[in-house]
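Entry 14. Structure prediction run on the chain below.
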Amino acid sequence: MLIPLGCGRDNKTAEDSMPMLSSPDDEELPASTIQRPVYSHHASPMHMSLHQVILKSWHAALQSLLTLFRTSNPTFTVVLVILINGFALNIQVLLQQYTSLVLHWSLATVNTALALKALVSSLVLFTLPTVRKAYLEPRMSTARIDLLITQASLVANLVGMIGLGFSGSAWFFVTSLCVFTSGCGLADSLTAYGTFSLPEGESVPDFYLRIGLVQTIAGLFGAPLWSTLFSLVLESRIVPLGFPFWLGAGLFGAGVIGTNALKKWCKDGI
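Output returned:
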């Protein structure tokens, strides 16, 4: 059906009713003169500040890594003992597989037994402040207390690690595991001792940066090295399964020797 032409708006009426959406000035401007904001990625002050912070952080980390052991005692010995302790503690990645092989336990039973570590460490960390405040602080200085706790923790780790290597029964394994876990106060006490006895020219932030780098290095290389060693032990028919744990006990023994050096310095310097 055709609609008559007169029933709708004509072209003139339609043109007159159109709203004015643009001004004459805008119509006269050519398209090339329209200015738009240009954002420079390199000119952003936030970007420049973040870039500088990252560069400074990497530079400080590199300098600390290059000068990690270029410090005087007792800081040098403290950092070295923490490195040795970090390598030795990473042997715990073998506990699950080792326990299952030696005691012929299922993984569920192994996980239940290893859960004792959390219980023992909680009891030790809960009891240690009370023992320190009630019995040790009235008799010894702060540095000597920290060093004593460090030595006791290393000895507990050493004895427990030897027992784990010789574990032939379930009760002996659980006992050795509890003795090993009771040495959980080493890192905090040794760090506190190192902070208290910083030599001249060594700042606290630099010392904690060294500790962080050492712990990172121990974590990066310790677990893969222990896993590789244990795989070689499994392939060998001569080397006993407990050999990695005895080697870890030797590292804890080296830590005991290092703390003895700190004890001698403590007598001379503090």
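Confidence is low (pLDDT under 50) at residues 5-34, 36-47.
Filed with the rest of this week's runs.
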